[in-house]
Structures are given as structure tokens and as C-alpha cells.
Amino acid sequence: MQNILRYFFGLLVILSISLFSSCRKNDKVDSNPALMLSFSTDTVMFDTVFATVGSVTQRLMVYNRNSNKISISQIQLGGGAGSSYRINVDGTPALTIQNVQIAGKDSMFIFIRVTVNPNDKNTAFIVSDSIIFQTNGNRQVIQLAALGQNADFNVKKTLKGNQVWDSLKAHVIYGYLRIDTGALLTILPGAKIYLHKNAYIAVSDQASLIIGGYGQWDHPVRIQSDRFDPYYRDLPGQWDAIYFERGSKGNSISNAVIKNGNYGLILDSLVTGSTAKLILDGTIIQNMVYGGIYAYSTSITGTNCVIGNCGGAALWIEKGGSYDFRQLTIGNFWTESVRSAPALYLSNFTVDSLGRKFPNSLDTAYFGNCIIYGSSDGEIQYDSVTTVAFSHMFDHCLLKTGLPVSNPNYYIGCFVNQDPRFLDVQNFNYRIDSISPAINKGVPMGVPNDITGRARPNPDTPALGAYEYAKTP
Fold first, then answer.
1. Quick check: 424 and 430 in contact, CB under 8 A?
2. In sequence order, what are the residues at sequence separation of 6 or more whose Cβ sits closer than 8 angstroms to the Cβ of residue 411?
């Protein structure tokens, strides 16, 4: 028994010595000049950063792949105090930090931010720098690069008179941008409008907003949030909405992409005798938390538009009005939360807080050569009272619905529940593929080109929706 105890005691001593030696070895700073650091990337990239506005924080991992401890004699921001970048090394902010040790098989974090200084350039430009590491006489460099852009900042601003926004600088909105009574804002093709968190655009009574230009397919106006890092790139709900308030008039949006807000467009009621409150052409509205277009007792004319992926109705028409949509594509495949609203909702009344109904005639709701589809079983809902008109017509449309479509007073040449074969709804691509049932199913609508500017090859039988089928090169 004593021999067995001596054996195990001796084994324990050997193991303890071995472990102690191993720990001592790992604690030793290795000055071998052949040893090198490893990094999570060789270039830390920042997406678009507006002048004077700080970026999101990027992270660089620094690894010691060796068994023994390494001492980094110096970590230095290449541009020094004049750099647009700032670094934080394991919790210590500094331009230069010395004698940083990393244990064997261990790592550390470096956090990096950039603030771009304004210059005389109107186009995007690159802001570069580097982080330099000196270890055992070796010099290793990690590149830093950010796409900088000068911008026109609008902080809780009210515009008066006639204003024009061009595409030379981005336009960033904090809080709100209000187009004052009687004023006009014209946003030229190619302009970029970025809204900060919860920001909105409001068009006042007797004011007008004109966005883009008809036929400017290659120069769309882009309206979205001011965050560009990957997490926010397709995140809905980052800004509020564009409001066309009661009495605004003469509004138009052509060739625009509006995305990632709460609502795309909210339109309040017309003033008696007004012409169409909004003319839409070649415009994409997508990835909205609540709805693409909320129209309340108003008037819209739309051609070649796409409304996709909304947490509520893509198009919600309440308390009547007058609407004419041709070559419209609606694809509602929302996955961020449970969606209870249909893709299209039509009503000729509204309800107050006490449940009382207030009617107003739905004089026209015309849909020609349209696709109205989505992930729900029924993507069309009607709510109406009989005391006022409820006029609607679907003319050669592909519809996702359980409603009968045989009544010629409301449906002409329509077919239901056939997959339109969108190319990639999760990435908001509502083009149709080569076997789409929407190809050659339309009738002439006076819309010779599709949303991309492509001439419709069979004008007498165009494809339904905003896109003609086109072979990819």
C-alpha cells in the first residue's frame, strides 16, 4: 500500500513540475524576431461616413498564435494627431501605446472610429490611414479606409419659397424637414436623401414636393436612413415617413427608391377641387415596418411602381378618394414579424375612437396590368358601406386572393393565386423570371417602358407588373 502511495505522490510531483514549467514557459516573453502577429483582417473598412459625423465602431482582433507571451513594443496610429481615426487598445484610448503584451495563444481587441473632415469635394472620397505594430523588430501594418462624403445637413429645418436640392452633395435630415405653406422643394435626379433616426419629411398645406424626373431611370433619387454598416443596410424602421399633409398639392415622385422607414408615404385628404395629390412613376417603396403607402381620402396616379415587404399593407386606401395604378407590382413577403394586414386594403369610410363610421366615396380604384401578391392566403381586403360609392376595377391583373374574380364590373381578364415567379423576394428583387405567368398577359396601358427604362417588347401584350422579363447577360 505504501508503494502505491509513493507512486501516486511521485506522479503528482512530476505533473505539478510539468504544469509549473508549462506556465513559466507561457509567461516568458519571447523576443524571437521570427514571431509575427496575426489579425482578423488586413484592412478595416468603413462604409459611407458623412463629414463631421462619427462612424460606427469597427473591431480589429490581434492574435498571438505562439506558445509564449509576445510584447508589442508599439502600436501607433499612422496619421498621429492629424488622423481622422481614433483607436482604443483593450480599453485604452491612445494615438500611440507601448509595451502591450499578449499571452501565448491569446488575443486582444482594438476598436476604431473615424470622423471625416469636410473638404471641397462634392463626390465621395477615400479617407485612409493605418495602424502600425512594432514587435521584436518587425513592422506590421493594418490599413484603414473609409468612404467619406460631404453633406448638406438639415436639422429641424423649415424650407420657404422655391428650393432645389441637387445631387452634388448628400442631404441629411435630423428631426424633420418641413416644406412650408406655399413653398416648393424640387429634388433633382440622382440626389441622395438620408434621414436620421425618427426623422421625417412633411409637405404642408399648399406646399409641393417634386422628386426626380420622368425617364431618369439611370439616376434614381434615393431616400433611406443615414446608417450604412451591414447590420442597418436592410433594417426597417430607421426613419419615420414622408407626409403629404392635408391641402398639399402638385406633388410628384419619379424614379426614386424609398426604403427602410416606418411608412414610405402618408397622404392626407384632398382640398375640394384639387387635381391628383401625387403622381408616382418608376418608384420603389420597400422594407417598411407599417406600410408602403397609406392614402386617406386622397388621389394618386401611379405607373411602373413597386411596393415590397411591409409589416402592414403595402397599399392601404382608407375613406375613399381616387386612384389609378398601372403596371404596379406589389410583393409582400414580410418576415420581420407577424403581418395581419393584406397587401392591398380598400375602404370608403373611416372609424373614429368610438367606432363610428364616417363615409366618403371611393370614386375610382383602378388597377391595370398589376401584380398583387404575397405570402398570405388573401392579399386583398375590402371594407365598404353602401351609403357612398365603392368603385374598384382590376383590369388584367394577377391577384393573390380567395375572392371570386368573375364579376366583369370589377374584374377583367384577371387570374388568381399563380406564383408570379419573382427572382428574389428576400433581397427585394421583384423582377420576373422566364417562366412567369405574368409574361405577355397585359393589355396596352399607355406605359411603353418598364421601371428600368426597357421598352416593352410586345406593347400589345406587355408583362404584368413594373418589370418586363429580360434575359440576364
1. no
2. 393, 394, 397, 405
Task: Tell me the per-residue pLDDT of 113-138, one tens digit each, with 9 for 90 and over.
Answer: 999 888 877 777 889 999 999 999 99
What are the C-alpha distances in Å from 59 to residues 40, 48, 433?
A: 9, 17, 41
Report which of 309, 305, 393, 284 is spatially closest to residue 346, judged by C-alpha positions. 393
Q: Cell numbers 523588430 correspond to what residue?
A: 137
232 sits in which H/E element:
helix 230-233
Question: Percent of the chain, pLDDT > 70?
Answer: 93
According to DSSP, the β-strands at 170-179 and 192-195 are parallel
The upper half-sphere exposure of residue 463, i.e. CA atoms within 13 Å in the direction of its Cβ, equals 28
Distances in Å between the Cα of 71 and the Cα atoms of 20, 32, 35, 97, 133 are 21, 11, 11, 12, 11
Q: What is the distance between the terminal CA atoms of the chain, rounded to a whole angstrom?
A: 84
Residue 402, sorted as left (phi over 0), alpha (psi -120 to 50) or beta, turns out to be alpha
Can you give the residue ranges of every domain in the chain? 38-148, 153-432
Q: Which helix (H) or strand (E) holds 12?
A: helix 2-27
Asked if residues 171 and 139 have their Cβ atoms less than 8 Å apart, the reply is no
pTM of the model: 0.85
Q: Which three cell numbers stand for residue 225?
A: 436612413
Per-residue pLDDT band for 230 (boundaries 50, 70, 90) equals confident
Q: Which residues contact 160 (CB under 8 A, 6 or more apart)?
A: 180, 183
- By CB neighbour count within 10 A (0-12 exposed, 13-18 middle, 19+ buried), where does 406 fall? exposed
| 384: exposed, middle or buried (Cβ count in 10 Å: 0-12, 13-18, 19+) | middle
Beta strands 411-412 and 393-395: pairing type? parallel
Among residues 86, 95, 19, which one has the least CA distance to residue 49? Answer: 86
pLDDT digits (tens, 9 = 90+) for 324-353: 999 999 999 999 899 999 999 999 999 999
Phi, psi of 82 (to 5 degrees): -85, 0
Q: What are phi and psi of 194, to 5 degrees?
A: -120, 130
DSSP output for 57-74: PEEEEEE--SSSBEEEEE
| Of the candidates 311, 282, 276, 308, the residue with the CA atom closest to the CA atom of residue 295 | 276
Class level of CATH domain 38-148: mainly beta
Does the pLDDT at position 355 exceed 50? yes
